[in-house]
Amino acid sequence: MKKHNFYAGPSILPQFTIENTAKAVMDFAGTGLSVMEVSHRSKEFVAVMDQAQALFKELLHIPDGYSVIFLGGGASTQFAMVPYNLLNKKAAYLNTGAWAKKAIKEAKLFGEVEVVASSEETTFNYIPKGYKIPEDADYFHITTNNTIYGTEIKTDIDCPVPLVADMSSDIFSRPIDISKYALIYGGAQKNLAPAGVTFVIVKHDALGKVERNIPTMLNYQTHIDKESMFNTPPVLPVYAALQTLIWLKDNGGVEAMEKKNIEKAQLLYDEIDRNKLFVGTVAKEDRSLMNICFVMNDEFKNLEAEFYQFASERGMIGIKGHRSVGGFRASTYNALPKESVLALIETMQEFEKMKA
Questions:
Q1: Which residues are catalytic?
Q2: Tell me: the pLDDT tens digits for 216-243?
Q3: Residue 107 domain boundaries
Q4: How many independent structural domains does the chain possess?
Q5: Are residues 211 and 175 in the same domain?
Q6: What is the average pLDDT across 77-82?
Q7: What does the alpha-carbon distance between residue 282 and residue 245 come to, in Å, rounded to a whole number?
Q8: Do residue 161 and residue 273 come from a single domain?
Q9: Distances from the Cα of 197 to the Cαs of 34, 85, 112, 213, in angstroms?
Q10: Does 239 share its domain with 278?
């Protein structure tokens, strides 16, 4: 039976990435060695790092004055690195979910934090609008896609101060106007690579403005100067990331991905809205294209476990909602084929015929 992978992260990757990485685990670039055992200083791996950075810039149309760096520690380390490097006196944050809350908590260790708006009072089921960004803030931080709750900021906002974004789960899913951001970061384990590498896109002139001393490893400038080679990078995930970037380019780039992602999400949201058994959990205008969350309608709540079992038996993997909210979540990242979305829709329709 074909498995349809809806896991939120680590999640589905292109077969191209999996197969090429598996080959490199056995023999990397004709060296007769595994990519897991070659020096990161070898000319073969330096070429991988250089190409990955170049493709990042090409696919996202990153202008001059920015660097792409690959780090360890996951996006959660960036919750502290961002304020360490950018927060001098005050930062502003938008609270749209669990990851935003964690970022806010870390930032408070470094200075004043103003939460300009929050949707916590309704379990983060919408993106706040109409808030005012303080013009004396050192930066404004947003989480563009909220994997747990299924909301997404799908446009690049105009911001009067440097804009920082956690794009862990929607990077490469749509075009971005990089020039509107001072810094973008994210864990790789959604749309890019296996867990273990974190990307940071940083504008050079955003750095060097804080008064504190920054430890060497936590200083973005260190990694810019050493081109992500100050210490041993996560070699295998970087290699896998390169394969995904090649796959993205070969498949029409970010612009083509956006069209496919809109189509996949619309198909599934239409079924959720039509089906008597299910209901969406967030404001329609803020629905994520990457993480589609839904629950059983109130009168069918008792069928939740039964539907999960029914879907699992038909090859739907990873559709259980986050443990903090329950229900169901179908993650429809770039590598998920339309075929998998159609299979889930068919499963939902079958269950409806049996129960409604």
A1: 99, 166, 190
A2: 999 999 999 999 999 999 999 999 999 9
A3: 15-250
A4: 2
A5: yes
A6: 98
A7: 31
A8: no
A9: 18, 20, 29, 25
A10: no
Tell which of 224, 250, 276 closes a domain: 250
Pair (177, 321) in one structural domain: no
**260-282 pLDDT per residue, tens:** 999 999 999 999 999 999 999 99
CATH assignment of the domain containing 297: 3.90.1150.10
Cβ pair 161, 299 in contact under 8 A: no
The pair of three-digit structure tokens given for residue 111, joined into one six-digit string: 């200075």
Q: How many helices (H) and strands (E) does the chain have?
A: 9, 14
Q: Please tell me whether residues 216 and 245 are part of one structural domain.
A: yes
* Residue found under tokens 């970087």: 238
* Whether residues 326 and 269 fall in one domain: yes
Domain closes at, from 196, 222, 250: 250
Give every CB contact of residue 276 below 8 A, 6+ residues apart in sequence: 297, 300, 352, 356
Are 171 and 198 in a shared domain?
Answer: yes
- Please tell me the distance from the alpha carbon of residue 33 to that of residue 37, in angstroms, as a whole number: 7
Q: Do 112 and 139 meet the contact criterion of CB atoms below 8 Å apart?
A: no
Residue with tokens 């990873």: 318
Q: What is the mean pLDDT of the chain?
A: 97
The whole-model pTM stands at 0.98
Q: What is the CATH number of the domain that holds 68?
A: 3.40.640.10
Measured CA to CA, the distance from residue 77 to residue 198 in angstroms comes to: 9
Return phi, psi of residue 235, to 5°.
Answer: -60, -50
Query: E strands along the chain, which residues?
Result: 4-5, 66-71, 90-95, 112-118, 140-143, 145-146, 151-152, 163-166, 183-187, 198-203, 278-280, 291-296, 316-317, 328-331
Structure tokens, 115: 């939460």
234 & 265 share domain: no
Burial 102-129 (b: 16+ CB within 10 A, else e): bbbebbeebbebebbbbbeeeebbbbbe
